Amino acid sequence: MPTTKEIKNRMTSVRDTQKITNAMYLIASTKMRKAKSGLDLTRPYFTAVQAEIKRIFRINGKIENRYFYPPGGEHELPGSYGYLVITADKGLAGAYNHNVIKYAEEVMKEHDNPKLFVVGEYGRHYFNAHNIPIEQSFLYTAQNPTIHRARDIAAVLLDSFDKGDLSKLFIIYTDMKGAAAYNVTCTRLLPFHRADFIVQNSPEEPIKREFEFYPSIEAVLDNIVPSYVTGFIYSALVDSFCSEQSARMNAMDSANRNAQKLLEELTLRYNHVRQSAITQEITEISSGAKSMKRK
Q1: Class assignment of domain 33-249?
Q2: 167 and 155 in contact (C-beta within 8 Å)?
Q3: CA–CA separation, 113 vs 82, rounded Å?
Q4: Are 79 and 166 in contact (CB under 8 A)?
Q5: Biggest alpha carbon distance in the chain?
Q6: What's the pTM?
Q7: Residue 32 and residue 246: Cα distance in Å, rounded?
Q8: What is the residue-level pLDDT of the chain in tens, covering all 295 positions?
């Protein structure tokens, strides 16, 4: 049976750990609010870009562009598929990283010769340790998603797509649905489907005045689409980051509850050991007094 000193040392250690988990919980919540505010500030611009693409297809729905499926809606395209996988830089976030990596491995098995692009130290270490080839690893910290980094990532992916190295491009990230709801999702980034921008039976008013596109509609789309892709990647980076912080908050909250439960058990055990020691001392004193009285 442990002594009271050993139990007290264990209780001190648990309290120190609880202070760390409390601090990590508060830091995660602060980071999540900051990232959300940054996304809210940039969202109107990318919403406007999407609206302009829709406007172009309202004017001419049969536009030919390399970033869109052919009008016939062909889905299976020959060539390599690219996958941008977004993970965290570190653990202590529950099953967040495990879920992303497991989902990515399952999706990449569906096609031959997939090309992998990775964001996040955790994913980099995992794929390297399991000898899974990485086409390019973006050496950006996942802890600080910015529009500048999203633009750099989009430039690399669009360059591979424009060269024909990739026929399709997917992004695997964690989509945050609510304060405690998030799930891993795989979204096709390129090429776009026309149905995503052509709204059937739209209540919008028809175009009353023709727009002029200079030098052409195709050239305008070639300039707008990279901005839209950048916005989507930035949104995915922020969603993943917020999901990571939410998972870390849940993990730290669970650790706090477990620590509190452990402290209650240790306190009860400490009281039992202490009471047993006191009882033993009283018994020894009483027995000694009786012995002395007989003598």
Answers
A1: alpha beta
A2: no
A3: 9
A4: yes
A5: 120
A6: 0.77
A7: 7
A8: 678 888 888 888 888 888 888 888 888 888 878 777 776 777 777 778 777 777 777 766 667 777 877 766 566 677 789 999 999 888 777 788 889 999 999 998 888 788 999 998 888 999 999 998 888 888 777 777 888 888 899 999 999 888 888 888 999 998 876 656 678 888 888 888 777 666 554 455 554 456 677 777 778 878 888 888 888 888 888 888 888 888 888 888 888 889 889 888 888 888 888 888 888 888 878 877 777 777 6
